[in-house]
Amino acid sequence: MLACRRRRNISPIQTFLYRQTLDIEAMALIKVSNLSRKPRGKWETRRREKILYPLERVWAALTEPGQLAQWWCDEAEIDLQKGGLYAFTGKTVFPAPPPAGTEGNFEILSIDIPNRLEYRWFIGKVETTVLYELESNLEQTELVITQSAERCPAWPSSNCSPNWWWTALPALRSTVLVSPELDTGATIARAARDQGCASGGSRLINGNLAEHEALED
Asked: CA 75, 188, 215, 104: dihedral to nearest 10 degrees?
């Protein structure tokens, strides 16, 4: 004799809790960002930007002197290797140059093409480090810029306090959107080549890009 099963009535609250459980399980399958979240100094400001173009295109906008001058500075000199230069000047750059004789300004501290670039930037007498971290997610790029120091250089230590990154990152995104077809493959290849040289890089002066290679004896 077949037993008749009684249908169980599920309350709206139970239904809601069940769906929440499914959502949590689904979230566990989502890729967790590997970008750094650990505090890097007593003072720190961090900005995050999502750009709807591939990582290589965003890397080029950050590291090509001609591209950098479109959203960040007037002149740039870049030598993409550890110990090389990531230098920029201009009226839109923070107007507090370091004291004369300061060593190590704009020095590249670490680089992992095309995912990570860290450099030293003196603001007045305060030594800060700037870290670019890029992560690809399908056809878009997540860019996190972290600037840190052992003391506050110019403004309150808060991600909610306006600083130059607030205007710089939207300008970067606009630059990528306006000229998305840059030859990013050549940019990455040249950066990798220059990183293996003793010295080298490129410089933008008054709108003109000049390349200088290492000379072998």
From this structure: 50
Give helix 164-178 / helix 55-63 axis angle, nearest 10°.
120
Joined tokens for residue 191: 């950066």
In angstroms, the CA 197 to CA 79 distance is: 10
pLDDT tens column, 63-104:
999 999 999 999 999 999 999 999 999 887 876 778 877 888
Residues in the chain: 217
Predicted confidence (pLDDT) per residue in 195-207, tens digit: 554 444 544 444 4
CB 170 within 8 A of CB 178: no
pTM (2 decimals)?
A: 0.67
> What ranges in 50-159 are assigned the alpha helix state H?
55-63, 65-71
